[in-house]
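User: I've been going back and forth on whether these two constructs are worth ordering. Before I decide, could you fold them both?

Assistant: Sure. I'll take them in the order you sent them. The first construct and its C-alpha cells:
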Amino acid sequence: MNVNVDAVLDFIVNYVKEPELNYDEDSKMIIIRSFDINKPGTLYSKVQGGVIGGSIISGSLRVGEEIEIRPGKIIEENGEVKCVPFITEIKSLYAESTNLDIALPGGLIGVGTDIDPSECKNDMMVGSVVGKKGILPPVFKKIKIKYNLLEKPVGSDVDSLDEESVVTVNVSSASSVVNIIEITDDYGYLELLKPICANVGEKLSISIKEGKSIRLVGYGNIIEGEDTEIIYE
C-alpha cells in the first residue's frame, strides 16, 4: 500500500536504538525455519543432515562447534512431559549463498547439522533455541505471566480472559496453545500444551481464537516458570 512508509523509515533511522552486541556472551539463536535438503531418491551414503535457519541473538556460532537445540523431542513418561534436546555438530554456516566459518548476530543464518533430516522437515524445528550444551534457558511446561489486553484489538471485542478462553501464546518464534489454570485481570497461570524454551522476563504475545480466526489481543512477560525435565540421550 506504501502508506506512511517514509514515516516508518524515519522512526527506525532516528529513534530506534542500535542494539548493543556482545560477541562474548553465551551463544543463542532462535530458529524460524528448518528443512530437509535431500531430494527424493538420494542414496543413503549421500544423505545430509537437517538444516535450521534463524537469527543469532547473542554470542557466535562456528563450524565444527557442538550445539544443543531445545526443547528437542517431547516425550511423556508416566504422565510426565520430558524433553530430549538434540545435540549436534555444526557442519556448515551460510548467510544466503555465502559460506561462513563463524556467524555473528544480525541477519538470517542457515546452519547445517548432522541431525536426522526427518526431524527438520517442514519447519518442525521452528520455535526451538540453539546454543552451547547445558547453558540454554529452561524449558517451561507451565508459566505465570503478567499481562495486558489491547485497548482496541483488531477484529475482536475481547475485554477479558477466563478459563474457557482458547488462548495461544507466542514467545519469540515459539507458539503454544495453553490451558488457563488461573486468571485475573493482570496475572495468569498457564499450562503450555507444547513446552517452550525461554527465560523468566521474556516477552510474549497473547492471541485468542474466535470462530475460525485467531486475533492478537494482548501482551505480557513471563514472571515464573515450571521446568520440564531435560534428558540427554
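The second construct, handled the same way:
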Amino acid sequence: MSATKEAPKKVGYWYFGGCASAMAAACTHPLDLIKVHLQTQQKKEVGMIGMGIRVFKRDGFFALYNGISASILRQLTYSMTRFGMYETYKQRKGSPMTFTESGVVACVSGFCGGIVGNPADMVNVRMQNDMKIPAAERRNYKHAIDGLIQVIRNEGTLKLFNGVSMTSVRAAFMTFGQLAFYDKFKILLLNTGYFDDKPVTHMIASASAPQMCVRTNEYLKQSFCLLCH
C-alpha cells in the first residue's frame, strides 16, 4: 500500500497582499470616489446612489475613475508595506504568534504602511475631489506620478505627508483589525474541525475581522488631506 502523499504547504509571499489590494482597488474605485465625495460635502445633500448619479450626470462615466492611478499606487505602497512587514515577520518567526504579538506586529506594520502610502493617498484624495472645485482652481493632475511631481515642485516635499498622523493611526487600527483578528478567527475556525484551510475559510475569517474602529479616523484623514484647499 502506497504511503499517503502529504499536501504541499501553502506559502504566502510578502508582496501578495499588496498586489491583491491593488487589483481590488481597481475594481472598487468608483465606490471609493463616491465615499470621498460624501465625506467632504459641507452638508448632507444626497446619499451614495444620489452622489454616484450626480457625478455621472455632471462629468460622465469615466469621472467615476478619477484618481484611479493614485488609488493603485497607494495600495502598492501602503498595503505592500503593511502586508509585507507582517507576513515577513510571521514567516521568519516560524512558530505561531500569540494574539498580543500579532496585534503589536500588525499595528507597527500598519503605522509604517500609513507613512509610506500617505503621498499617494493625498494625491488620490485630491484627484477624486478635483471635480468639485471650480474649473479655474482645479489641479488637473494627469496621473499619480504627475500629481506627486507637481506637489513637490509647487508646495514642497513635506506637503506629501499632509495628514500623515491620522493616516498612520488609521492604518494601524485597520491592519490590527484585518490581520491580527483575521489570523485569530482563522485559527478558531480551523480548530472547530468543520473548516479546512481553503478560500471559504479565509473569506469567513475576513468578514469576521472587525473594522468599524477605523470609521472616525477615515473621516478625519480625508479632512486633513483636504486642508490644502
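Notes on the second construct follow. The CA atoms of residues 35 and 155 lie 26 Å apart. The chain has a mean pLDDT of 82.
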